[in-house]
Amino acid sequence: MVQPLAERMQAIRRDHLGEHFPPVEFHGHDIWSGMGPWARKAPTELLAVMESLIGLLEELSISVIHARIDKEALHERHGGAFDQNAYLLALQFLLEKLDDWRSSEALRVIIADEHKEQQLRAIKLVSDLQTWGLGLVPGRKLRSVIDSMHFVDSKNSYGVQLADVVAFVLHRATLPTQNHPDADAAVTRMREVIAGHTPRYRQTWP
Q1: Mean pLDDT by 10-residue block, N- to C-terminus, for the chain (206 residues)?
Q2: Do 57 and 15 belong to one domain?
Q3: For burial by CB atoms within 10 Å, which of 31, 32, 34, 156 has the most?
Q4: Do residue 71 and residue 147 come from a single domain?
């Protein structure tokens, strides 16, 4: 779905920003807050953009697998000793969930947003999991994840951009309120779409 996803996200950009508006990078926070190219858009249109993007999960049969670390709980449990490992812990849990899903049917290559502070450690983690099944915590050997982990500038990957929007919605869904009934309803609808396309996930840890 890589090419169809790019085409549909470009179409959403044209629908809301105009036929001749230059390519934009979709960021959940920017759209939600009306920042950058989304400035001066009415809240109803911003919500429509978000829902159109999340709707691509259904339209293109895209699956979501996610893991989430509670950084405050991690800090409290270990006295700050593992604060720098939150990203890698989430990555390990995510890879294990992905690897366990339809592992006999597909081989996977991992594409991630650039994270210069963690890239070398992340690449080593993937290699260790592939070779030995060793992670930051006891884990399992990856069977379907092949090759190294590849980092890209998110502006060049519609898949990474959609993942950003999905992660943003998942975060908003943890809040008690969005401070407006229309936004509350939109987040609920989007969260239900995501849930319907989530075959594997890791409960918030720790």
Answers
A1: 96 96 96 97 98 98 97 95 94 96 90 93 97 93 94 97 98 97 98 98 94
A2: yes
A3: 31
A4: yes
